[in-house]
Amino acid sequence: MYRKILITTDGSSVSSKTACAGVTFAEQLGAEVLVLFVAPAYQYPIYVEIIPPSYPSEEEYRAALLRAGDEHTRDVVQACLQRNIRCTALTTFAESAATEIVAAGVKHGCDLIFIGSHGRSGWGQLLLGSVTNKVLSQSRIPVLVHRLIAEPEYKN
């Protein structure tokens, strides 16, 4: 059915749990995984005439966020390795995470986007805006939304 699944992560606990569910789903289908972290694009400080010495250069910023992307995608890559699932990790930079997620899915030949949702509804969803909603509205690739309503209970 699906051969290559794009799983998104932003490093939050919700996206980590979604990524775990995505790996399980990929394993059930025998699908390959592309795990994606979208970092915010570098922004020059426009409110000052001289860039403060403490402000990171674009190269420093990119290096730091590439390291963060490696950290955020590491668990998914490890879970895939343990289950013999082919997996590629990717960190990209963009002003709009939703647009970049959709573009990455198309560029890398994914046939499903697996993305999380906090499970908000009504005003909470409307006021906060949602990357998931934007992906749903922009994507021509099927999108599977993993909705995490409550944190799972762990038993020791």
TrEMBL record:
Q: Which residues form the UspA domain?
A: 1-145
Pfam families, alphabetized: Usp (PF00582)
Cite the InterPro entries for this sequence.
Answer: Rossmann-like_a/b/a_fold, Universal_stress_UspA, UspA
What SUPFAM superfamilies does the annotation carry?
Adenine nucleotide alpha hydrolases-like
Please, which domain of life does this record's source organism belong to?
Answer: Bacteria
Q: Which family does it belong to?
A: Belongs to the universal stress protein A family.
Q: What is this protein called?
A: TRAP-T-associated universal stress protein TeaD
